Amino acid sequence: MQINGKIIAGGIAMGKVCFQHTDYDRFLAAYRPARADIEKIRYTNAVSQAKQDLNELILSGRTDKEGQEILKSHLAIVIDPSLENMVFSCIDSGLSAPKALLSAIDDLSQPILLLSDEMIRERAADIADSGKRILRKLLAMEEPAFPDEDIIIYADNIEPSVMAGFSEERVKAVLLSNPSETSHTAIIAKAKDFVTITGFDAARYNFLENDTIIVDTFENSIIVDPSNADIIDYNKKLKKWNSKRAALLDSAYLPAKSLDGKEYTISANISTPAAIEKAVTYGCNGVGLFRSEFLFMESKKLPSEDEQFHAYKNVVTKTADSLCIIRTLDIGGDKKSACITLPEEENPYLGYRGIRFSLDNKAIFKTQLRAILRASHFGKVAIMVPMITTLYEINRCKRLISECKKELGAKGILYDPKIQFGIMIETPAACLMADVFARHVDFFSIGSNDLIQYTFAADRNNPKVSHFFDCYEPAIIRCIHNVVTAAHNAGKWAGICGEIASNPLLLPFFMALDIDELSMTSSSIPAIKEQIRHTSSSTCDLETILSFDSTKKVQKYLESIKTE
Asked: I need a labelling partner for 436 at 20 to 30 A (CA). Which of 15, 86, 249, 418 fits?
Protein backbone atom coordinates (compact mmCIF):
# COMPACT_ATOMS: atom_id res chain seq x y z
CA MET A 1 0.00 0.00 0.00
CA GLN A 2 1.05 3.57 -0.62
CA ILE A 3 2.43 5.70 2.21
CA ASN A 4 0.09 8.33 3.56
CA GLY A 5 1.40 11.36 5.41
CA LYS A 6 4.35 13.70 5.03
CA ILE A 7 7.78 12.13 4.55
CA ILE A 8 10.14 14.10 6.77
CA ALA A 9 13.17 11.84 6.39
CA GLY A 10 13.18 9.33 3.57
CA GLY A 11 14.79 5.94 3.25
CA ILE A 12 13.93 2.30 3.71
CA ALA A 13 13.41 0.49 7.01
CA MET A 14 12.20 -2.87 8.28
CA GLY A 15 11.29 -3.85 11.82
CA LYS A 16 8.60 -4.97 14.23
CA VAL A 17 5.86 -2.45 14.94
CA CYS A 18 6.03 -1.02 18.45
CA PHE A 19 3.08 1.10 19.55
CA GLN A 20 4.23 3.96 21.74
CA HIS A 21 1.31 4.76 24.00
CA THR A 22 1.58 5.75 27.64
CA ASP A 23 -1.56 5.08 29.68
CA TYR A 24 -1.37 8.04 32.06
CA ASP A 25 -5.06 7.73 33.00
CA ARG A 26 -4.59 4.28 34.54
CA PHE A 27 -1.68 5.43 36.68
CA LEU A 28 -3.46 8.64 37.66
CA ALA A 29 -6.47 6.60 38.83
CA ALA A 30 -4.20 4.45 40.99
CA TYR A 31 -2.39 7.39 42.59
CA ARG A 32 -3.06 7.91 46.31
CA PRO A 33 -2.78 11.58 47.33
CA ALA A 34 -1.47 12.64 50.75
CA ARG A 35 -1.30 15.86 52.76
CA ALA A 36 -0.27 19.02 50.93
CA ASP A 37 3.19 19.10 52.50
CA ILE A 38 3.86 15.50 51.45
CA GLU A 39 2.53 16.16 47.94
CA LYS A 40 5.00 19.03 47.63
CA ILE A 41 7.86 16.78 48.72
CA ARG A 42 6.77 14.16 46.16
CA TYR A 43 6.75 16.84 43.46
CA THR A 44 10.20 18.12 44.47
CA ASN A 45 11.60 14.57 44.36
CA ALA A 46 10.03 13.97 40.95
CA VAL A 47 11.62 17.15 39.62
CA SER A 48 15.02 16.00 40.90
CA GLN A 49 14.63 12.65 39.14
CA ALA A 50 13.49 14.31 35.90
CA LYS A 51 16.42 16.71 36.12
CA GLN A 52 18.83 13.80 36.53
CA ASP A 53 17.33 11.97 33.52
CA LEU A 54 17.67 15.02 31.28
CA ASN A 55 21.22 15.74 32.39
CA GLU A 56 22.17 12.14 31.62
CA LEU A 57 20.57 12.39 28.17
CA ILE A 58 22.38 15.65 27.43
CA LEU A 59 25.73 14.14 28.42
CA SER A 60 25.10 10.76 26.78
CA GLY A 61 25.87 11.92 23.24
CA ARG A 62 22.72 10.25 21.89
CA THR A 63 21.67 13.45 20.11
CA ASP A 64 23.50 16.06 18.07
CA LYS A 65 24.07 19.56 19.43
CA GLU A 66 20.71 20.81 18.16
CA GLY A 67 19.00 17.96 20.01
CA GLN A 68 20.99 18.79 23.10
CA GLU A 69 19.79 22.39 22.91
CA ILE A 70 16.19 21.14 22.84
CA LEU A 71 16.85 18.95 25.87
CA LYS A 72 18.45 21.88 27.68
CA SER A 73 15.33 23.96 27.06
CA HIS A 74 13.27 21.11 28.59
CA LEU A 75 15.59 21.03 31.58
CA ALA A 76 15.06 24.78 32.05
CA ILE A 77 11.28 24.21 32.13
CA VAL A 78 11.57 21.32 34.61
CA ILE A 79 13.56 23.39 37.12
CA ASP A 80 11.74 26.69 36.48
CA PRO A 81 10.68 28.14 39.86
CA SER A 82 7.55 29.65 38.30
CA LEU A 83 6.30 26.16 37.35
CA GLU A 84 6.94 24.97 40.90
CA ASN A 85 5.08 27.98 42.30
CA MET A 86 2.07 27.23 40.10
CA VAL A 87 2.09 23.56 41.12
CA PHE A 88 2.41 24.36 44.83
CA SER A 89 -0.43 26.87 44.55
CA CYS A 90 -2.67 24.18 43.03
CA ILE A 91 -1.64 21.71 45.74
CA ASP A 92 -2.55 24.28 48.40
CA SER A 93 -5.99 24.55 46.78
CA GLY A 94 -6.55 20.82 47.34
CA LEU A 95 -5.19 19.08 44.22
CA SER A 96 -2.84 16.12 44.31
CA ALA A 97 0.68 16.69 42.96
CA PRO A 98 -0.03 14.98 39.59
CA LYS A 99 -3.28 16.89 39.03
CA ALA A 100 -1.63 20.13 40.18
CA LEU A 101 1.15 19.57 37.65
CA LEU A 102 -1.31 18.86 34.83
CA SER A 103 -3.26 21.99 35.73
CA ALA A 104 -0.11 24.13 35.72
CA ILE A 105 1.07 22.68 32.40
CA ASP A 106 -2.34 23.32 30.87
CA ASP A 107 -2.36 26.94 32.10
CA LEU A 108 1.10 27.50 30.63
CA SER A 109 0.42 25.75 27.32
CA GLN A 110 -3.07 26.89 26.34
CA PRO A 111 -2.26 30.53 25.50
CA ILE A 112 0.62 29.37 23.28
CA LEU A 113 -1.51 26.75 21.50
CA LEU A 114 -3.90 29.51 20.42
CA LEU A 115 -1.15 31.15 18.38
CA SER A 116 -1.04 30.48 14.65
CA ASP A 117 2.73 30.21 14.22
CA GLU A 118 3.63 26.53 14.20
CA MET A 119 7.20 27.00 15.39
CA ILE A 120 6.05 29.05 18.38
CA ARG A 121 3.38 26.47 19.21
CA GLU A 122 6.20 23.97 19.61
CA ARG A 123 7.00 25.79 22.86
CA ALA A 124 3.72 24.41 24.22
CA ALA A 125 4.84 20.91 23.18
CA ASP A 126 8.10 21.45 25.05
CA ILE A 127 6.19 22.48 28.17
CA ALA A 128 3.92 19.45 27.91
CA ASP A 129 6.88 17.12 27.32
CA SER A 130 8.73 18.46 30.36
CA GLY A 131 5.59 18.13 32.45
CA LYS A 132 5.02 14.53 31.38
CA ARG A 133 8.57 13.62 32.35
CA ILE A 134 7.91 14.94 35.85
CA LEU A 135 4.50 13.23 35.84
CA ARG A 136 6.03 9.84 35.04
CA LYS A 137 8.29 10.21 38.06
CA LEU A 138 5.36 11.19 40.29
CA LEU A 139 3.38 8.18 39.15
CA ALA A 140 6.37 5.80 39.41
CA MET A 141 6.09 4.96 35.71
CA GLU A 142 8.96 3.36 33.81
CA GLU A 143 10.51 5.25 30.91
CA PRO A 144 9.76 3.68 27.50
CA ALA A 145 11.80 0.53 26.84
CA PHE A 146 11.96 -1.59 23.71
CA PRO A 147 12.96 -5.14 22.77
CA ASP A 148 16.48 -5.88 21.62
CA GLU A 149 15.58 -6.02 17.93
CA ASP A 150 14.88 -3.67 15.02
CA ILE A 151 11.63 -1.80 15.55
CA ILE A 152 9.39 0.73 13.84
CA ILE A 153 7.61 2.99 16.27
CA TYR A 154 4.06 4.16 15.75
CA ALA A 155 2.51 6.83 17.99
CA ASP A 156 0.15 9.76 17.96
CA ASN A 157 3.08 11.80 19.15
CA ILE A 158 6.29 11.27 21.10
CA GLU A 159 7.85 13.73 23.51
CA PRO A 160 11.11 15.13 22.11
CA SER A 161 13.10 14.10 25.19
CA VAL A 162 11.77 10.54 24.80
CA MET A 163 12.72 10.53 21.12
CA ALA A 164 16.21 11.72 22.09
CA GLY A 165 16.67 8.59 24.20
CA PHE A 166 15.72 6.12 21.46
CA SER A 167 18.47 3.76 20.31
CA GLU A 168 19.78 4.55 16.84
CA GLU A 169 20.80 0.92 16.60
CA ARG A 170 17.29 -0.45 17.13
CA VAL A 171 14.77 2.19 16.03
CA LYS A 172 14.60 2.18 12.23
CA ALA A 173 11.55 4.32 11.53
CA VAL A 174 9.08 6.58 13.32
CA LEU A 175 5.47 6.94 12.16
CA LEU A 176 3.55 9.78 13.84
CA SER A 177 -0.10 10.62 13.37
CA ASN A 178 0.63 14.15 14.58
CA PRO A 179 1.05 16.16 11.36
CA SER A 180 3.61 18.69 12.59
CA GLU A 181 6.71 18.39 10.42
CA THR A 182 8.47 21.26 12.24
CA SER A 183 8.04 19.75 15.72
CA HIS A 184 11.06 19.16 17.91
CA THR A 185 10.13 15.48 17.85
CA ALA A 186 10.44 15.40 14.05
CA ILE A 187 13.67 17.43 14.17
CA ILE A 188 15.30 14.99 16.59
CA ALA A 189 14.02 11.93 14.68
CA LYS A 190 15.49 13.31 11.47
CA ALA A 191 18.78 14.15 13.20
CA LYS A 192 18.99 10.56 14.51
CA ASP A 193 18.55 9.33 10.92
CA PHE A 194 15.25 7.56 11.52
CA VAL A 195 12.95 7.22 8.52
CA THR A 196 10.28 9.67 9.68
CA ILE A 197 6.69 10.23 8.53
CA THR A 198 4.20 12.63 10.12
CA GLY A 199 0.45 12.85 9.58
CA PHE A 200 0.46 9.06 9.30
CA ASP A 201 -2.93 7.33 9.41
CA ALA A 202 -2.35 3.81 10.77
CA ALA A 203 -6.03 2.93 10.32
CA ARG A 204 -5.38 2.51 6.59
CA TYR A 205 -3.10 -0.45 7.27
CA ASN A 206 -3.84 -3.76 8.91
CA PHE A 207 -0.78 -4.05 11.07
CA LEU A 208 -0.76 -4.90 14.75
CA GLU A 209 1.87 -4.51 17.42
CA ASN A 210 4.83 -6.87 16.81
CA ASP A 211 3.93 -7.26 13.13
CA THR A 212 6.93 -6.93 10.82
CA ILE A 213 6.59 -4.17 8.22
CA ILE A 214 8.78 -2.55 5.57
CA VAL A 215 8.60 1.23 5.08
CA ASP A 216 9.97 2.21 1.68
CA THR A 217 9.81 5.91 0.78
CA PHE A 218 11.56 5.26 -2.56
CA GLU A 219 8.66 3.12 -3.73
CA ASN A 220 6.20 5.11 -1.60
CA SER A 221 5.00 1.86 -0.04
CA ILE A 222 4.44 -0.02 3.20
CA ILE A 223 4.54 -3.81 3.17
CA VAL A 224 2.91 -5.66 6.07
CA ASP A 225 4.18 -9.18 6.89
CA PRO A 226 6.75 -9.20 4.05
CA SER A 227 7.52 -12.40 2.16
CA ASN A 228 11.03 -13.83 1.76
CA ALA A 229 11.21 -12.21 -1.66
CA ASP A 230 10.22 -8.85 -0.13
CA ILE A 231 12.96 -9.17 2.51
CA ILE A 232 15.60 -10.05 -0.10
CA ASP A 233 14.52 -7.00 -2.12
CA TYR A 234 14.63 -4.87 1.04
CA ASN A 235 18.20 -5.91 1.86
CA LYS A 236 19.33 -5.03 -1.66
CA LYS A 237 17.70 -1.58 -1.45
CA LEU A 238 19.09 -0.96 2.03
CA LYS A 239 22.63 -1.74 0.91
CA LYS A 240 22.22 0.53 -2.09
CA TRP A 241 20.75 3.32 0.08
CA ASN A 242 23.55 3.11 2.64
CA SER A 243 26.13 3.31 -0.11
CA LYS A 244 24.38 6.31 -1.63
CA ARG A 245 24.23 8.15 1.70
CA ALA A 246 27.91 7.53 2.33
CA ALA A 247 28.73 8.78 -1.16
CA LEU A 248 26.59 11.90 -0.69
CA LEU A 249 28.39 12.77 2.53
CA ASP A 250 31.77 12.12 0.91
CA SER A 251 30.91 14.52 -1.90
CA ALA A 252 29.07 17.09 0.25
CA TYR A 253 32.03 19.47 0.18
CA LEU A 254 32.21 19.50 -3.61
CA PRO A 255 30.84 22.62 -5.32
CA ALA A 256 27.24 22.65 -6.57
CA LYS A 257 28.21 23.10 -10.22
CA SER A 258 25.76 22.17 -12.98
CA LEU A 259 26.56 20.07 -16.06
CA ASP A 260 26.95 23.27 -18.07
CA GLY A 261 29.34 24.80 -15.55
CA LYS A 262 27.13 27.13 -13.50
CA GLU A 263 27.82 27.17 -9.77
CA TYR A 264 25.18 27.73 -7.08
CA THR A 265 25.50 28.58 -3.40
CA ILE A 266 23.80 26.03 -1.14
CA SER A 267 23.42 27.39 2.38
CA ALA A 268 21.89 26.22 5.65
CA ASN A 269 18.91 27.44 7.64
CA ILE A 270 19.71 27.34 11.35
CA SER A 271 17.83 28.31 14.50
CA THR A 272 20.58 28.01 17.13
CA PRO A 273 24.37 28.47 17.15
CA ALA A 274 24.77 24.76 17.90
CA ALA A 275 23.25 23.85 14.53
CA ILE A 276 26.15 25.28 12.53
CA GLU A 277 28.44 22.33 13.23
CA LYS A 278 25.98 19.89 11.68
CA ALA A 279 25.47 22.25 8.73
CA VAL A 280 29.21 22.37 8.07
CA THR A 281 29.36 18.56 8.19
CA TYR A 282 26.69 18.42 5.48
CA GLY A 283 28.69 20.72 3.22
CA CYS A 284 26.87 24.03 3.54
CA ASN A 285 28.27 27.07 1.72
CA GLY A 286 27.48 29.37 4.61
CA VAL A 287 24.25 30.26 6.39
CA GLY A 288 21.37 31.60 4.33
CA LEU A 289 19.04 32.10 7.29
CA PHE A 290 20.12 32.43 10.90
CA ARG A 291 16.89 32.85 12.85
CA SER A 292 17.80 35.17 15.72
CA GLU A 293 14.52 34.60 17.61
CA PHE A 294 16.04 31.84 19.73
CA LEU A 295 17.77 34.47 21.88
CA PHE A 296 14.48 36.20 22.60
CA MET A 297 12.26 33.12 22.92
CA GLU A 298 14.34 31.37 25.59
CA SER A 299 14.87 34.28 27.97
CA LYS A 300 12.69 36.22 30.38
CA LYS A 301 14.85 39.31 29.86
CA LEU A 302 16.00 40.99 26.69
CA PRO A 303 19.34 39.59 25.52
CA SER A 304 22.12 42.14 25.85
CA GLU A 305 24.25 43.37 22.98
CA ASP A 306 27.16 41.26 24.24
CA GLU A 307 25.02 38.12 24.54
CA GLN A 308 23.80 38.53 20.98
CA PHE A 309 27.28 39.38 19.69
CA HIS A 310 28.82 36.20 21.14
CA ALA A 311 26.00 34.03 19.73
CA TYR A 312 26.41 35.51 16.25
CA LYS A 313 30.21 35.43 16.39
CA ASN A 314 30.09 31.74 17.34
CA VAL A 315 28.37 30.95 14.04
CA VAL A 316 30.23 33.45 11.87
CA THR A 317 33.65 32.12 12.82
CA LYS A 318 32.59 28.60 11.85
CA THR A 319 31.36 29.54 8.37
CA ALA A 320 34.95 30.42 7.37
CA ASP A 321 34.92 32.51 4.18
CA SER A 322 31.25 31.83 3.43
CA LEU A 323 28.45 34.31 4.04
CA CYS A 324 26.34 34.16 7.19
CA ILE A 325 22.99 35.92 6.79
CA ILE A 326 21.48 36.92 10.13
CA ARG A 327 17.78 37.71 10.07
CA THR A 328 16.79 40.38 12.53
CA LEU A 329 14.13 39.68 15.11
CA ASP A 330 11.00 38.26 13.48
CA ILE A 331 8.60 38.58 16.38
CA GLY A 332 5.25 40.19 16.98
CA GLY A 333 1.65 39.37 16.27
CA ASP A 334 1.44 35.62 16.85
CA LYS A 335 5.11 35.22 17.80
CA LYS A 336 5.31 35.81 21.53
CA SER A 337 8.30 36.15 23.81
CA ALA A 338 8.54 36.16 27.58
CA CYS A 339 10.84 39.19 27.46
CA ILE A 340 8.68 41.32 25.14
CA THR A 341 5.17 42.56 25.91
CA LEU A 342 2.98 42.70 22.82
CA PRO A 343 -0.63 43.76 22.32
CA GLU A 344 -3.29 41.14 21.67
CA GLU A 345 -4.38 41.15 18.03
CA GLU A 346 -7.42 39.87 16.22
CA ASN A 347 -5.46 38.99 13.08
CA PRO A 348 -1.82 38.50 14.06
CA TYR A 349 -0.63 37.36 10.64
CA LEU A 350 -1.56 40.78 9.29
CA GLY A 351 -0.45 42.59 12.40
CA TYR A 352 2.41 43.92 14.44
CA ARG A 353 5.29 41.65 13.51
CA GLY A 354 8.75 41.51 11.97
CA ILE A 355 10.22 44.82 10.89
CA ARG A 356 7.07 46.64 12.01
CA PHE A 357 7.84 45.77 15.61
CA SER A 358 11.57 46.45 15.25
CA LEU A 359 11.12 49.93 13.78
CA ASP A 360 8.73 50.85 16.58
CA ASN A 361 11.21 49.59 19.19
CA LYS A 362 14.45 51.22 18.11
CA ALA A 363 16.36 50.46 21.30
CA ILE A 364 15.80 46.69 20.85
CA PHE A 365 16.46 46.89 17.11
CA LYS A 366 19.65 48.95 17.38
CA THR A 367 21.01 46.65 20.10
CA GLN A 368 20.64 43.75 17.70
CA LEU A 369 22.06 45.67 14.75
CA ARG A 370 25.15 46.65 16.73
CA ALA A 371 25.66 43.02 17.80
CA ILE A 372 25.44 41.84 14.18
CA LEU A 373 27.81 44.58 13.01
CA ARG A 374 30.33 43.61 15.67
CA ALA A 375 30.17 39.97 14.55
CA SER A 376 30.84 41.07 10.96
CA HIS A 377 34.45 41.86 11.93
CA PHE A 378 35.05 38.11 12.37
CA GLY A 379 33.71 36.86 9.02
CA LYS A 380 31.38 37.53 6.11
CA VAL A 381 28.02 38.69 7.49
CA ALA A 382 24.83 40.09 6.01
CA ILE A 383 21.88 41.73 7.73
CA MET A 384 18.45 40.60 6.55
CA VAL A 385 15.15 42.07 7.71
CA PRO A 386 11.79 40.26 7.57
CA MET A 387 8.32 41.32 6.44
CA ILE A 388 9.32 44.33 4.34
CA THR A 389 6.38 45.79 2.41
CA THR A 390 7.40 49.40 1.67
CA LEU A 391 10.43 51.40 0.55
CA TYR A 392 9.93 53.60 3.62
CA GLU A 393 10.76 50.61 5.86
CA ILE A 394 13.90 49.85 3.86
CA ASN A 395 15.15 53.42 4.13
CA ARG A 396 14.47 53.57 7.87
CA CYS A 397 16.43 50.35 8.38
CA LYS A 398 19.37 51.71 6.41
CA ARG A 399 19.39 54.91 8.45
CA LEU A 400 19.42 52.95 11.71
CA ILE A 401 22.27 50.76 10.44
CA SER A 402 24.22 53.92 9.62
CA GLU A 403 23.54 55.24 13.12
CA CYS A 404 24.81 52.00 14.65
CA LYS A 405 27.97 52.11 12.53
CA LYS A 406 28.71 55.63 13.77
CA GLU A 407 28.10 54.61 17.39
CA LEU A 408 30.49 51.67 17.10
CA GLY A 409 33.05 53.77 15.26
CA ALA A 410 32.98 56.42 18.00
CA LYS A 411 33.91 53.70 20.50
CA GLY A 412 36.63 52.24 18.29
CA ILE A 413 34.72 48.97 17.85
CA LEU A 414 35.52 47.23 14.57
CA TYR A 415 32.95 46.01 12.03
CA ASP A 416 32.73 45.38 8.30
CA PRO A 417 31.86 48.77 6.73
CA LYS A 418 30.72 46.97 3.56
CA ILE A 419 28.33 44.59 5.32
CA GLN A 420 25.50 43.56 2.99
CA PHE A 421 21.90 44.57 3.69
CA GLY A 422 19.04 42.49 2.30
CA ILE A 423 15.34 41.86 2.74
CA MET A 424 13.06 38.87 2.82
CA ILE A 425 10.43 38.73 0.10
CA GLU A 426 7.35 37.32 1.81
CA THR A 427 4.37 39.37 0.64
CA PRO A 428 2.67 40.20 -2.67
CA ALA A 429 3.54 43.87 -1.99
CA ALA A 430 7.25 43.05 -1.92
CA CYS A 431 6.92 41.00 -5.13
CA LEU A 432 5.17 43.83 -6.94
CA MET A 433 7.77 46.37 -5.78
CA ALA A 434 10.79 44.11 -6.29
CA ASP A 435 12.18 46.19 -9.18
CA VAL A 436 12.11 49.31 -6.96
CA PHE A 437 13.37 47.58 -3.81
CA ALA A 438 16.28 46.00 -5.70
CA ARG A 439 17.83 49.43 -6.26
CA HIS A 440 18.03 50.00 -2.48
CA VAL A 441 19.27 46.65 -1.12
CA ASP A 442 22.12 44.23 -1.77
CA PHE A 443 20.07 41.07 -2.07
CA PHE A 444 16.66 39.39 -1.83
CA SER A 445 15.84 36.15 0.01
CA ILE A 446 12.45 34.65 -0.77
CA GLY A 447 10.62 33.27 2.27
CA SER A 448 8.37 30.85 0.42
CA ASN A 449 6.25 29.70 3.38
CA ASP A 450 4.84 33.15 4.09
CA LEU A 451 4.86 34.17 0.43
CA ILE A 452 2.55 31.29 -0.50
CA GLN A 453 0.34 31.96 2.51
CA TYR A 454 0.00 35.69 1.87
CA THR A 455 -0.40 35.33 -1.90
CA PHE A 456 -3.43 33.09 -1.45
CA ALA A 457 -4.67 34.70 1.78
CA ALA A 458 -4.83 31.20 3.24
CA ASP A 459 -3.60 30.07 6.66
CA ARG A 460 -1.53 26.93 6.05
CA ASN A 461 -2.53 25.66 9.51
CA ASN A 462 -6.24 25.85 8.68
CA PRO A 463 -7.32 22.51 7.15
CA LYS A 464 -10.25 24.19 5.39
CA VAL A 465 -7.93 26.26 3.20
CA SER A 466 -4.57 24.47 3.49
CA HIS A 467 -4.99 23.05 -0.03
CA PHE A 468 -4.13 26.53 -1.33
CA PHE A 469 -0.68 26.12 0.21
CA ASP A 470 0.89 24.65 -2.92
CA CYS A 471 4.34 25.60 -4.20
CA TYR A 472 3.43 24.51 -7.76
CA GLU A 473 0.73 27.14 -8.16
CA PRO A 474 1.40 29.26 -11.28
CA ALA A 475 1.04 32.41 -9.18
CA ILE A 476 3.97 31.32 -6.99
CA ILE A 477 6.08 30.31 -9.98
CA ARG A 478 5.50 33.76 -11.48
CA CYS A 479 6.17 35.56 -8.19
CA ILE A 480 9.54 33.84 -7.83
CA HIS A 481 10.42 34.53 -11.45
CA ASN A 482 9.53 38.22 -11.11
CA VAL A 483 11.55 38.66 -7.92
CA VAL A 484 14.70 36.95 -9.20
CA THR A 485 14.47 38.81 -12.52
CA ALA A 486 14.09 42.16 -10.73
CA ALA A 487 17.16 41.44 -8.59
CA HIS A 488 19.32 40.42 -11.55
CA ASN A 489 18.21 43.39 -13.66
CA ALA A 490 19.47 45.63 -10.86
CA GLY A 491 22.75 43.74 -10.58
CA LYS A 492 21.81 42.20 -7.22
CA TRP A 493 21.66 38.58 -6.13
CA ALA A 494 18.62 36.57 -5.01
CA GLY A 495 18.11 33.44 -2.97
CA ILE A 496 15.36 31.28 -1.49
CA CYS A 497 15.32 30.36 2.20
CA GLY A 498 11.85 28.82 2.48
CA GLU A 499 10.99 25.11 2.49
CA ILE A 500 10.79 24.91 -1.31
CA ALA A 501 14.54 25.55 -1.58
CA SER A 502 15.17 21.83 -1.00
CA ASN A 503 12.38 20.61 -3.30
CA PRO A 504 14.08 18.38 -5.92
CA LEU A 505 11.23 18.82 -8.40
CA LEU A 506 11.55 22.61 -8.36
CA LEU A 507 15.34 22.60 -8.55
CA PRO A 508 15.51 22.68 -12.40
CA PHE A 509 13.22 25.74 -12.33
CA PHE A 510 15.48 27.50 -9.82
CA MET A 511 18.52 26.65 -11.93
CA ALA A 512 16.85 27.98 -15.06
CA LEU A 513 16.25 31.24 -13.17
CA ASP A 514 19.99 31.42 -12.41
CA ILE A 515 19.09 31.56 -8.73
CA ASP A 516 22.17 32.61 -6.80
CA GLU A 517 21.53 30.81 -3.53
CA LEU A 518 19.32 28.11 -2.02
CA SER A 519 19.18 27.84 1.76
CA MET A 520 17.69 24.78 3.44
CA THR A 521 17.69 22.29 6.30
CA SER A 522 21.25 20.99 6.66
CA SER A 523 20.45 17.32 5.99
CA SER A 524 18.98 18.23 2.58
CA ILE A 525 22.18 19.87 1.33
CA PRO A 526 24.21 16.84 0.08
CA ALA A 527 21.38 15.49 -2.11
CA ILE A 528 20.54 18.89 -3.62
CA LYS A 529 24.21 19.57 -4.42
CA GLU A 530 24.49 16.15 -6.03
CA GLN A 531 21.34 16.76 -8.10
CA ILE A 532 22.75 20.06 -9.34
CA ARG A 533 25.93 18.32 -10.46
CA HIS A 534 23.80 16.02 -12.67
CA THR A 535 21.50 18.71 -14.06
CA SER A 536 21.91 21.37 -16.72
CA SER A 537 20.65 24.90 -16.06
CA SER A 538 18.68 24.64 -19.32
CA THR A 539 16.82 21.47 -18.31
CA CYS A 540 13.72 23.51 -17.44
CA ASP A 541 12.39 25.87 -20.11
CA LEU A 542 11.26 29.10 -18.44
CA GLU A 543 8.88 30.14 -21.19
CA THR A 544 7.12 26.79 -20.96
CA ILE A 545 6.72 26.66 -17.18
CA LEU A 546 5.55 30.29 -17.04
CA SER A 547 2.84 29.55 -19.60
CA PHE A 548 0.97 27.04 -17.44
CA ASP A 549 -2.33 28.01 -15.82
CA SER A 550 -2.75 25.21 -13.26
CA THR A 551 -0.87 23.48 -10.47
CA LYS A 552 -1.25 20.09 -12.15
CA LYS A 553 0.35 21.30 -15.38
CA VAL A 554 3.32 22.81 -13.52
CA GLN A 555 3.91 19.69 -11.45
CA LYS A 556 3.43 17.32 -14.40
CA TYR A 557 5.97 19.28 -16.45
CA LEU A 558 8.54 19.26 -13.65
CA GLU A 559 8.05 15.53 -13.13
CA SER A 560 8.58 14.91 -16.84
CA ILE A 561 11.88 16.79 -17.04
CA LYS A 562 13.23 15.35 -13.78
CA THR A 563 13.86 11.98 -15.41
CA GLU A 564 15.37 13.23 -18.66
From this structure: 418
